[in-house]
Amino acid sequence: MNGNGTGRKILLAAASILALLALFPMDLAPDRYLVTYRADLFEPWGPSSEDGASFNSDCLRSYYPRRVLASTALREGRIPLWDPWSFCGQPFLANFQSGVLYPVNWALLPFAPERQAGLFVWIHLVVAAVGMLLLLRSLGLSPGAALVGGMLFAAGDALAVRTGQSTMLAAASWIPALLWSVRRTIHGGSIAVLALVFAGTILAGFPPILVWASLLAGAWAVHQWLEVRGERGTRSILRAAGGFLLGAGLAAAQIVPTAELIGHSDRIRFAWPTLLSSAWHPAALLRLLVPDWLGSPFDGDDWAHLLSRGDGHYWQSFLSTACYAGAGTLLFAAVGFRTALRDRGARFLIIAGAAAAFLLLGTPLLRMISLVPGLSGSRVDRVVHLFSIALVVPAAFGFDRLRGGAGGRRCAVLAAAALAAAAAALLLFGGGIAGRIAGRIAGDAGALAAGTSPFAAARASRTLLVLGAALVPFLVPPRIRRSLFLLVAAAAVLVLDPALVARSRHVTVGEEGLPRERPEILFLREGAAEGRVVRFEEENLPPNLPGIFGIEDVAGYNALNIKEYRAYLDAFAPGAVKERRINPIEQTWELRSMLLARLAARWVIAPPAVSGLLEETRFPEERYRLAREGRFRVYEDRFAFPRVFLAERAVPVGSAEEAMEVLARRGRRNRVVAVVEGNFPGVEEAARAFPAGAGGRPEAAPFGGGEPTEETAVIVEREPERVVVDCAAGRARLLVLADVFYPGWRVSVDGAPARIWRTNRILRGVAIPAGAHRVVFTYRPLSFRVGSALSLLSLAALAALGFRAIRLRRAR
């Protein structure tokens, strides 16, 4: 282990923080917010009043809404277990990317959600820089080399391009710290540090990166143990295993509910052509040297989608192929490559990075990996961070080598000449190469060649400037070369170039770029109790955003969603069901379906351009009426089912197919037939299952002491994890709540526990005896309770380890 003291590491960490403050001040600017996609590109906030870049719409449609909902719930003192706003309801905490239990999000609660976004990114850039710094110091590198390597990783394109996908950036930022803590544990350090870092990697909230980071860390642990097994035996590897296990236990409150949700999701494994479509086209490697090769979304000319792979399910994009290392990084990596291979730890990381590169390029290695369960359910471009680490490590070794003799300088001159020749060829002939690619793939050679012109490439990459700066240290006297000048020059060459490119990825917006209340939104929120919204054609009010205004949506956008719900929508609107989202309905005939009406989809949002189109779908009873004009039109579906109602008749069915066949038939708007799956004995018999005294018109029911004069059901209290319904019926009925059926929901009738039946294929039904009753639905998933118990036990074990370490230290 390296013998440098804690004080020097603290100074290096402080230097990293100051450098990141200087490089990325926009993340902390008081009047700007790191929400990388502008809301005013959508209705009802558009058109945009400001000319500014928008980058990565996932930030606005997925990450920002989750942050708002989680922050609101935690400030109210409750843990958000359920999301009622999207997909007619789905688990919230169980969605890994919600980050509800992530300590960094708890620390940011005093700030507004839009302010949290920039702070969150900046904090994780610090985590990335300090983690890489500690890893490089543990490999024996000098403080200067470790500092430069840490900044290279934090300011690299692979992290910077994910500023709009906060959980992806957060999970990747922990990888160097995880490797360092594993090495530290193997060499005798406390397992508590490894447990905390691994728990942070898990709770950061991006499972695909977690899987690859865990595989890398496990292999790294075995590699490190092989170095010390003669000295420490098997105890060291067992300690590392204990650290991993304890870290997983600390995060069990997140892991167990997520595992349950994955079991109800259909995103388990991709076919080989689909997985291959997420691999890089070899032409994307040119972006190692030129960041905007094949265009840039900041200039409105992203042409990377022309580089199709596999079945084309995943388009190649600027985002998925971002890998700019900088000419300085490549130069110093070439200098330090041979030296790094002599170090066992560095050699392992380089080999791991090379394997990641083979995976990225869709080689037969990826085909082999795709056969391993759990590794073929996500895009392969997520391993780019392992490739980035393999570039940073030899670059840091190259920095130290250049401080040595003339051999390093001669190697640097040769590497610089080779890079200069490659850059010159790319800048001079890059447009022609791009044109050939476009002509062969899409027949759009002219536009692509213009977007990859020598001038555009030079302006974007600063390649020539950096290569020139790389030669400066070799033109000054040796005495100056070995002094502070070398450190400053190397920092400028290695760090400044990728950092300047990374700054363009930190897109921020002002107040006008955030989603705010508009008259159309107020109208929908006032009618939210009457039903949900559904979009027709354009993406007005993008999915997930309605929830931050208290509006429930039939659609949604999330990596995991319930497969039964997707199958239900696919039965009448197949064009709307995509891999991770439910898109707007595009055909008028889909609006005729009674399957849509059963979701309580009362409000249809449509752009003004479709005026008169929806009227063509009306039934003789005039199903749709125009309810409001504005930046988008709001139509009311008069056939939409109520949020809660008492069904006239309950029909038991034996299969999902039979249920869908019955549901597709048209029926009356209220008091209609409900379809119940399972061993349903009938309403009368199911209602008799209540204990004696249930159904006796309790004081909580609002209908008085006499027999009810009419059958009615009203939602009197509605929270994400609790729904209270008051109802009255002249005889036993089936109460239907138009919310998604999912394990963990419990129901009581007048305080007595009852059973929730899968009704209308995806909704909830409860058998109600005659009389007036209060029905309470609560979400208390067993998975969260089991996970929480495991987390508490692990926390107690961690505390015991901490007390033991303190006692041993005092004893010494």
In brief, what are we looking at here?
With 812 residues, the chain is α+β, with helices and mostly antiparallel strands. Helix content is 47%, strand content 11%.
Question: Which keywords apply here?
Answer:
alpha+beta, 29 helices, globular
Query: What is the strand tally?
Result: 19
- Read across the widest sheet, the strand sequence of neighbours is 12-13-19-15-16
Mean pLDDT: 83
Large-scale geometry: globular
**Helix content, binned percent:** 40-55%
Judged by helices, strands and strand pairing, the structural class is alpha+beta
What does the model show?
The structure is a single chain. By secondary structure, the chain is α+β, with helices and mostly antiparallel strands. It is built from 29 helices and 19 strands. The strands form 6 sheets. Strands 12-13-19-15-16 form a 5-stranded antiparallel beta sheet, with no helix packed on it. It has a 4-stranded mixed beta sheet with strand order 3-6-8-7, with helices on one face. A hairpin with a 6-residue loop joins β1 (82-83) and β2. The longest helix has 36 residues, at 406-441.
Which SSEs are present, and which pair or pack?
Layout: H1 6-23, H2 58-75, E1 82-83, E2 90-91, H3 103-107, H4 113-138, H5 143-154, H6 157-160, H7 166-173, H8 175-186, H9 191-203, H10 207-232, H11 235-250, H12 252-263, H13 272-277, H14 327-342, H15 344-360, H16 364-369, H17 384-402, H18 406-441, H19 445-451, H20 454-461, H21 463-471, H22 478-481, H23 484-503, H24 519-526, E3 533-535, E4 556-557, H25 563-570, E5 581-582, H26 594-597, E6 603-606, E7 624-628, E8 633-637, E9 644-647, E10 649-653, H27 656-663, E11 673-677, H28 683-687, E12 712-719, E13 722-729, E14 733-737, E15 745-749, E16 752-754, E17 757-759, E18 763-768, E19 771-779, H29 782-811
Parallel strand pairs: 3-6, 10-11
Antiparallel strand pairs: 1-2, 4-5, 6-8, 7-8, 9-14, 12-13, 13-19, 14-18, 15-16, 15-19, 17-18
